[in-house]
Amino acid sequence: MLLAVAVDADGSPVSVSWSGDARRNIIVWMDHRAVDQAERINARNSPVLQYCGGGVSPEMQAPKLLWVKENLQESWSMVCRWMDLSDWLAYRATGDDTRSLCTTVCKWTYLGHAHMEQWKESDSCDMEACGWDEVFWEEIGLGDLVEGNRSKIGRSVAFPGHLLGSGLTPNAAKASDFELGLLPGTPVGTSLIDAHAGGVGVMESVPDAESKADSQLSDGQAICHRMVLVCGTSTCHMAVSKNKLFIPGVWGPFWSAMVPEFWLTEGGQSATGALLDYIVENHAAAPLLANHAASQSISIYELLNKILLLMMHEQNISYLSALTQDTHVLPDFHGNRSPLADPKSKGVICGLTLDTSDKNLALLYLATIQGIAYGCPIILPRENESVLLGAAVLGAVAAKKFPGVRDAMKTLNAAGKVVHPSSDPRVKKYHDAKYQIFRSLSPVDLDTSSTQCTGVTSITCISHVSSLEMADSQQQEFKKDHTTGPDV
């Protein structure tokens, strides 16, 4: 959860809202108010941008701050510090204003590789922030942020997990709004973004079968053969490598932003959990269904899963996925983070009818899950509490229980439940066909798109027609191959 936090010289909140309400001093990552600012920054083609996949996203901090400066001058003049939420919490806990390499590199265009020669030094937990490209900030109209030795955005940085200050301050330990129940001096480590903490929590979670295969590789090679998906409101797709990889539309390469000494590349989907909530909560059947779920002490999603199983049996369908043969979803409802890097991209639902029943909601729910999965067709082990485990890794390193983040990861990471694909060839054939429909819903050829796609503000009727024609041509085969009873 990346947030820009604005505070004045006394640490009091400064509004970043048109309302002027000082309680609204945070811009959440998914706030896309700065699309125009991001486009103008990218048009300058600064060398810094090659380390952001070719351009900044409105989900990053530079365009958000430019928006505040251009639209809320009074607030802009009052702010003494701009911080990410994780850095702000660490500052509140310790009084140490040192920023994390994770937050600054991934969201602030900080060049972490400026510290490649320092990372093993004993004092590297408090390094001078030499990775800011001051020319970049001046060019985009935010030169005032690098004045005063860059005090507003970070004068010093540290690798995640390094001890901050003298640990928890007495004031923080007794603060009633914290209610931590911890003692003064408790070690506090430099932070990670929540998704990246999830990466640290699972990157070494290797199932036994994969562990045997990895034994043929060196330690540094094995971790580079893995990808982590951390799912929540959005989904982050993260992989590390020993060499920097420049991939248009994929954020990075970020040096030591997650795993020390490794370059991080990061893709993602801007709306996954948020999209499922949107689809479910805005359906006519949702209020009644939510009441039914509450009466059974289960979530609405558990109830939808039960409805889908019932529908499968009622229609005599051999596997659940085949229920959505007439319904297809392109999940870009909040833009496309990667590979198109297009915040203006729009979503599509193909196959809508006038049906407002709970069964129709269940089908939309399943089709949305499928669309999200088709946006990232890979299979991974599942770890439910990866972010908390990653945070525990940082705490353990800060408390000197382990010499470094990798050592803690190898000890504390453990394989969760492994979800394997169906071995039924009909299921694979079905999803292959649906995936082609999914691709046809996009206005951009995903195979040939190697640069950023900007300015796609709508899906034309041609895209709808082509997808429907493809669906129609395949549905008879679906019905023949994927049902054992009457046509559905």
Describe the structure.
By secondary structure, the protein is of the alpha+beta class. The chain folds into three domains: 3-174, 2-Layer Sandwich (Nucleotidyltransferase, domain 5); 194-272 and 379-418, no CATH class; 273-330 and 332-374 and 423-481, Methane Monooxygenase Hydroxylase, Chain G, domain 1, CATH 1.20.58. Helix content is 38%, strand content 11%. It is built from 19 helices and 14 strands. The protein has helices at residues 35-42, 61-71, 73-78, 85-94, 101-108, 134-139, 147-150, 170-174, 194-202, 208-214, 219-222, 273-281, 286-295, 300-314, 358-374, 386-398, 405-412, 425-440, 461-481, and strands spanning 3-7, 26-28, 81-84, 99-100, 127-128, 156-158, 228-231, 235-241, 251-255, 263-269, 328-330, 348-350, 381-382, 417-418. The strands form five sheets. It has a four-stranded antiparallel β-sheet. A three-stranded antiparallel β-sheet has the order 2-1-3. A three-stranded mixed β-sheet has the order 4-6-5. A hairpin with a 3-residue loop joins strand 7 and strand 8 (235-241). Helix 1 crosses helix 2 (61-71), helix 16 packs across helix 17 (405-412) and helix 18 packs antiparallel against helix 19 (461-481). The longest helix is centred in the C-terminal third of the chain and has 21 residues, at 461-481. It is globular. The two termini are 42 Å apart. The model is unreliable at 448-488 (pLDDT under 50).
